[in-house]
Amino acid sequence: MESSVKAAGKPTMAGQIEVQLRHDILHGILAPGAKLNLDKLRSSMDVGLSPLREAVTRLVAEGLIEAEAQRGYTVTPISVANLNEVCALRLELEPYALRKSIENGGLDWETAVMGALYRLNKTDRIPGDPVSLANWEVANNAFHLTLVERCDMPLLIKMYKSLVSMNDRYRHIYLKAVAVQRDVIDEHTAIAQAAVERRANDAAALLARHIERSTNNLRLLISADLPENPQ
Amino acid sequence: MESSVKAAGKPTMAGQIEVQLRHDILHGILAPGAKLNLDKLRSSMDVGLSPLREAVTRLVAEGLIEAEAQRGYTVTPISVANLNEVCALRLELEPYALRKSIENGGLDWETAVMGALYRLNKTDRIPGDPVSLANWEVANNAFHLTLVERCDMPLLIKMYKSLVSMNDRYRHIYLKAVAVQRDVIDEHTAIAQAAVERRANDAAALLARHIERSTNNLRLLISADLPENPQ
DNA sequence: TGTTGAAATAAAATCGATTTTCTAGTATAA
DNA sequence: TTATACTAGAAAATCGATTTTATTTCAACA
């Protein structure tokens, strides 16, 4: 994902650091719950303190880092409760956004949806191969974003993106080497079809089921690993 | 509203500035769309640049300020489209959160709801009197927050608070001197009753209607003032 | 032993100054 | 005229150092 601040001209130091940090958190390189010592981070990343602080502050806003005044920063912990909330909110917001997109979108939107679907279907997801997994994730996120993008609700899109990145973190940490058994391609295709044909109820229901299945998959792997309560 | 960062011990400079800025934006003292010159702000508020930058960054995250790299900051503009989105999202999220609260809340929650209702009903809203309006707003927000708080979904609560503050800004700017004609007390009481009696469908529907009415009120005043499209 | 308090240390927050990047104005060339 | 290149000037971004606050250590005392 790019920086949270609209970029003009040269990218700013803070923006680059933000991207790097987000990547490291979403991929578990900075472990959930880890204490972030800004001074050590600064030297290890070889950047200045001011832009680092700024980047961290932005990620606090995004919910990937937690701040406590005068006590520094922590990578937001993961927990079953948090995963459940992320899933519940996606279930509430994504189908809603999809319905709005179906209302607002025209031929351009339909074209974008079918295009994103095509690319996704052509992108192999090879468990264990990081490059393939990364490519697949880009295509997958692009498809899902395209579906909902024409809701024309910028605040909603921002919430949506934030939820997706939280969800991706769980995927990265727990789904590195696991093959997806169910036929995701069929699910995506069915959603896209229904969307393009303006069958809003079908599309929303299919998308909801898709989200649920994906999360259940994750939940199984994680429950074994983490206690039920957050913290 | 307090600082977005959990406070320990002494409040930090950045936190205080954040509170001040949020207040000024929400009350239209810093006008919607206004360019924020950090250096001038710094001297006019008589604070340092670093904590000011930090405070501004937090408010960017909250959606009250917009940032563009290397081009500075702008108070988020207001528009009919934005008000509509804020309202639509509240309609989607608040009744949902209320249902969850009804599921999770026990006697403590019921007590808190009825308490907040009582205080709100005892707090007069005198149009034109800033102190009275501010007190009423505190009580009103506390009541609404209490209703949804036991959804036990921290991310949802954060979204909710952010939407409420955006909504409050429109209220402050356009509803300064206007009396509320409909009987808000009855609406609040009906919602609280239904919630406490666990009539989830009733409570959610009443809350939704309440939100709609409040927004319609605002929308009328604003449409006269602003064009339909943002920016 | 366990507890309290002062000193030392580590980390976060802030400051003041510098560097980089944008913006607007002007002059020159097509 | 229109477009392009240059040049202050303004504003944003960043740096390095300082100040403030929290945490840890350790000794004195109960």
From TrEMBL, chains A, B:
One of its GO terms (molecular function) is DNA binding. PANTHER family: HTH-TYPE TRANSCRIPTIONAL REPRESSOR GLAR (PTHR43537:SF20), TRANSCRIPTIONAL REGULATOR, GNTR FAMILY (PTHR43537). Pfam families: FCD, GntR. Residues 11-78 form the HTH gntR-type domain. This is Transcriptional regulator. The keyword Disulfide bond does not apply. Keywords: DNA-binding, Transcription, Transcription regulation.
